[in-house]
Specification:
Blueprint: H1 19-33, E1 39-45, E2 52-59, E3 67-75, E4 82-86, E5 91-95, H2 98-109, H3 112-128
Antiparallel strand pairs: 1-2, 2-3, 3-4, 4-5
């Protein structure tokens, strides 16, 4: 007896960049750009609503036990739509797809307030290593 496939044709060969992957790429880029003076981290938060929730944070080896949370992203298993909370600029974004997510993330990371935070953390980090 053969089992009938009720799933249909699943797109098992296709892979999509997840919001987590995109955040991790940006965290790694910050670490490289600052020559590890600042370290980008992506941490997962456990939520009960069936969502994946991740924070993008900045820390420094020189500033022990300090981490600055830039933003939080909440998304379902289907990846989109997602919501993003920008803690530096106190703004919320919604994204229906990867393109909108990247655009919103770029607005946050390149904002003047985030640049000031990065500069301040870099300055503090350098001061504490002297």
């Amino acid at each position: 007896m053969s089992v009938e496939n009720l799933w249909g044709d699943l797109p098992l060969g296709e892979e999509t960049r997840t919001p987590y992957t995109i955040l991790l790429e940006q965290a790694t880029l910050l670490t490289e750009m600052t020559k590890e003076a600042l370290v980008g981290h992506v941490s997962r938060i456990r939520r009960e609503e069936g969502l994946f929730t991740f924070n993008l944070e900045i820390s420094s080896q020189a500033i022990r036990r300090y981490s600055y949370r830039l933003l939080q992203v909440d998304f379902p298993p289907s990846l989109y739509p997602l919501s993003m909370s920008d803690f530096t600029n106190d703004v919320k974004y919604g994204s229906e797809n990867e393109e909108e997510f990247i655009k919103g993330l770029g607005e946050i990371l390149s904002s003047e307030k985030v640049k000031k935070v990065v500069l301040g953390l870099l300055s503090q980090s350098k001061a504490m290593t002297k």
